[in-house]
Amino acid sequence: xxxxxxxxxxxxxxxxxxxxxxxxxxxxxxxxxxxxxxxxxxxxxxxxxxxxxxxxxxxxxxxxxxxxxxxxxxxxxxxxxxxxxxxxxxxxxxxxxxxxxxxxxxxxxxxxxxxxxxxxxxxxxxxxxxxxxxxxxxxxxxxxxxxxxxxxxxxxxxxxxxxxxxxxxxxxxxxxxxxxxxxxxxxxxxxxxxxxxxxxxxxxxxxxxxxxxxxxxxxxxxxxxxxxxxxxxxxxxxxxxxxxxxxxxxxxxxxxxxxxxxxxxxxxxxxxxxxxxxxxxxxxxxxxxxxxxxxxxxxxxxxxxxxxxxxxxxxxxxxxxxxxxxxxxxx
Length: 331
Description:
- By secondary structure, the protein is α+β, with helices and mostly antiparallel strands.
- It has two domains: 3-167, no CATH class; 182-325, no CATH class.
- It is 34% helix and 22% strand.
- The protein has eleven helices and twelve strands.
- The strands form two sheets. The chain has an eight-stranded mixed beta sheet. Strands 5-4-12-11 form a four-stranded antiparallel beta sheet, with no helix packed on it.
- Helix 6 packs antiparallel against helix 9.
- The longest helix has 20 residues, at 271-290.
- It starts with a strand and ends in a 6-residue tail after the last helix.
- InterPro entries: 4Fe4S_Fe-S-bd, 4Fe4S_Fe_S_CS.
- GO terms for molecular function: iron-sulfur cluster binding; metal ion binding.
- This is 4Fe-4S ferredoxin-type domain-containing protein.
- Pfam families: Fer4_22.
- Keywords: Iron, Iron-sulfur, Metal-binding.
């Protein structure tokens, strides 16, 4: 049976969820939309531009304590609080579904998995394409300021069973799907992208020479990407040195320090090396390991790159050069 909820009842739904969960959602702050803990459900942004930081921050935090040593005893850090990520768009939802595969690959990331076990994902779709194979509940915008409930898990079905959701006698048409962007169309053929990017390293290196000069090596493309997961470890001690914590922090493979090892050797010594590696991991290694590029076309890396690098344009040039130079080859 089709279930719908009025937009006016969204704050009531969030208040219900807050009774037993922390709820994080897109809210307006300083003329920007950011994911944050919800205090006032009326301030949730239901129609918003893509946030700078993706909701992966709740599963792979910018900094997290892994364990602590006190008085020569190791204390495990336990994650207990249940939470809901509400209002993420379908691209960010698809990224989390992909991260589930990456972090679940042996050896599995137990900290990520624990957070996913404690989480509920409720996405909002407004003219977006497709339904990701994951998440718990999708609220699809339909006419008359309402949302159609698409429950994907038992958690989602339980929420859609609340009295706030009403049975609808007629299946309302969703808003027309937005046309695919050029990057979204390219990502439909992840194999072609992977072949072209791998081929370009030796056969079309000029583009990487040029990008290596343009890239500032700031790491912003990695930090804002919903599918990048570069990290490093730091040990932090209290002032009196009685407590030492092992922490995992975000890192970026485009930073010069990322590939530096003992003795000062750097096995990716140039920005060209580092920037190509970023592309290789996303579009070649991602395809080889998981069958699709590690990109959901959210546009963050292009929007926030201070050097103005556009990966859509880069991929288009690389693919065109590859197709002119040689027939399609298989891995």
